[in-house]
Amino acid sequence: MFERFTRGARAAVVTAAGQARALGHSHVGTEHLLLGVVGDTGSPTQRALGRLGLDQPRVQDAVRRLRPEAGADLDPDALRSIGIDLSAVRARVEETFGPGALDRGRPGTGHVPFSPRSKRVLELALREARRRRDGSIGGEHLVLGILRDGGGLAAVILAEAGIDRAGLERELAAPDPGRADAG
């Protein structure tokens, strides 16, 4: 399927994986796909989302608010007060599964898998490209796939920004002042 992705859409997917790693998340979620699209500076989809009020800093803030870093909410003192010693748990896990077993999916540790919902969004992006009779899958199809799925953090972020399918479709069809052939 990736052979049908535009260069920008491929870059968005690669960026999504990098964002998941950088944020210490264990998988690539729809929110990371959205980060990849809004991070594709100068793309028609990035500009359309920007005109609708959604830019990279706003998406990053929403991701941090809605999905904090893994383990950020664990308070070692509070857990110790109920008899849980995090260092003992870590030692036992590493004894059983090997050193660094709890670090998988953290920055710099390699591959971060796509969530089932993100995989579904990628499939829906293909369907959106077919529906629109487009020859390739671009960032706009990724966002339309997110909206078509309707779940996940990216859909929440888009809804919070007041972006729905009809509004995005209208903005994508409008003349784009950022395009070289726009005027």
Describe this structure as you would to a colleague:
The structure is a single chain. The chain is mainly α and 183 residues long. It has helices at residues 7-22, 30-38, 44-51, 56-66, 76-81, 86-97, 116-131, 139-149, 152-160, 165-173.
Protein topology:
Elements: H1 7-22, H2 30-38, H3 44-51, H4 56-66, H5 76-81, H6 86-97, H7 116-131, H8 139-149, H9 152-160, H10 165-173
Task: Give a short summary of the structure.
The chain is an all-alpha fold. It contains ten helices and no strands.
Tags for this entry?
183 residues; mainly alpha; 10 helices; 58% helix
- As a percent range, the share of helical residues equals 55-70%
Order of helices and strands: HHHHHHHHHH
Major beta-sheet overview: none
Overall radius of gyration: 19 Å
Helix and strand content put the structural class at: mainly alpha
The beta-strand count equals 0
* Weakly predicted, low-confidence segments: 104-108
Provide the β-strand percentage band: under 5%
Mean pLDDT: 84
Quaternary organization: single chain
Straight-line N-to-C gap: 34 Å
Number of helices: 10
Shape summary? elongated
